[in-house]
Amino acid sequence: MQKRQQPGRRTVLGAAALGAGAAVFAAAGQADAADRTNPAGRTPAGPTPTGTAGRPRQLPVPFVIGHRGASGYRPEHTFGSYQLALDMGADVIEAGDLVPTKDGHLVCRHEPDISATTDVADHREFAGRKATKTVDGKKITGWFTEDFTLAELKTLRAKERIPDVRQHNTLYNGHWEIATFEEVLQWAEREGRRRGRPVWIYPETKHPTYFRKLGLGIEEPLAKLLRRYGRHTAHAPNLLQSFEPSSLRRLSELGVKCPKVVLLDEPSVRPWDFVESGDPRTTADLLKPEGLKWIAGFAQGIGPWLPQIIAQDDKGRLGKPTTLVRDAHAAGLFLTPYTVRNENNFLPLDFRVGGNPGDYGNSLAYFKALYATGIDGLFSDNPDTAVLAAEEFRRH
Q1: What residues have CB less than 8 Å from 280, skipping those under 6 apart?
Q2: How confident is the model at residue 10 (pLDDT cuts 50, 70, 90)?
Q3: What is the CATH T-level fold of the domain 18-111+181-395, as seen in this structure?
Q4: pLDDT of residue 52
Q5: Least confident residue range of 8-12, 195-199, 256-260
Q6: Across the strands, what pairs with 302?
Q7: Residues 56, 69, 302, 26: what is their CA dihedral angle, to the nearest 10 degrees?
Q8: 145 closest CA partner among 172, 105, 174, 186
Q9: What pTM did the predictor assign?
Q10: Is 7's pLDDT higher than 50?
Q11: Of 35, 46, 192, 228, which has the most beta carbons under 10 Å away?
Q12: Between these two residues, 392 and 9, which has the higher pLDDT value?
């Protein structure tokens, strides 16, 4: 899951000013303590924010979500990435930004355009599939999953999406094929039996209105698969997320009862299903207490963009925590903001170290500042760093 404009990316670089991050960490305070079951076998879960009734009680607080697996170390949405995130101790694996194939299978890719995440451009037999399409109002040229059968997609191999920043990940280009969501469910079952505890996953329905208009609705095959593997109940070990609230409501109508999370874009953006239906509300409206109350009528959580938790100025320096955590918890919603990455290129200015955008900054301090606001969980490309920060946060 990622905001379309790549959240947290800044072009301005500078030296780290860690004092500001430390001040935010100290000022934000820690949430009230309460015991929780910790299926990962780590330090017992710490604070449980007041009012987060929808948060699964089996997960620690804060819980760590491996963003597209451990995509800081392996090409995203591959079994190499998912397995590494699990082995690193992530509590939940974002195994699946779900997009359909031409023949109706759900596969795990960040977007329907697979130009940057597979070797499709190297396959001469698919040269004629390149197309320009309008997805949620934006023109995109590339190769799209809905123009391929599953058998055809299985001939492709995954590659690193941002090789200029993560050159080391290119070592694994060509190693893994595109995973189907059913294969993810089978993997989670195997790993759950091996570990003696459920493997939590966090799939997202991608561009559901766009695909529904193509006759390739995502929710029906998703609900069918969840029922087949017993993951459709309220206590099943998965969370479901979407930028389009109507997609989550449709899943509920299909009998899927597991917790649902509304993803939130930049404040000025309208969810695409709102655009299609004529709903004038923007993300800014949904961030208000009345908007959060509306979300709580059909979902249990929200997935905000990081600056909606702790504001940043126009240069990318961290400011003060907003009231969103307090407001969401008051509405009974849990929060899982996105996405912290270790590289300078993705960190607030205060946490960058040196001038190389691909070098690691002080992401540990940024994690702790975010945890201190009382969030319930956090997406990271680097789940090992997120786990370490969560353990240190709980100890203090």
Answers
A1: 270, 274
A2: very low
A3: TIM Barrel (3.20.20)
A4: 53
A5: 8-12
A6: 262, 335
A7: 90
A8: 105
A9: 0.88
A10: no
A11: 46
A12: 392
Q: pLDDT digit string (tens) for 129-180?
A: 999 999 999 999 999 999 999 999 999 999 999 999 999 999 999 999 999 9
Q: What whole-number distance in Å separates Cα of residue 170 and Cα of residue 172?
A: 5
Give Cα 77 distance to the centre of its chain. Answer: 11
Residue % of the chain over a pLDDT of 70: 86
- Give the torsion sign (CA, 357, 162, 217, 180): negative
- Judged against a pLDDT cut of 90, whether residue 29 lies above it is answered with no
Structural domain boundaries of the chain? 18-111+181-395
pLDDT in tens, 38-73: 333 333 333 333 335 578 889 999 999 999 999 999
Of 1 and 145, the one with more pLDDT: 145
User: How does 195-218 read in b/e, with b if 16+ C-beta sit within 10 Å?
Assistant: eebbbbbbbbbbbbbbbbeeebbb
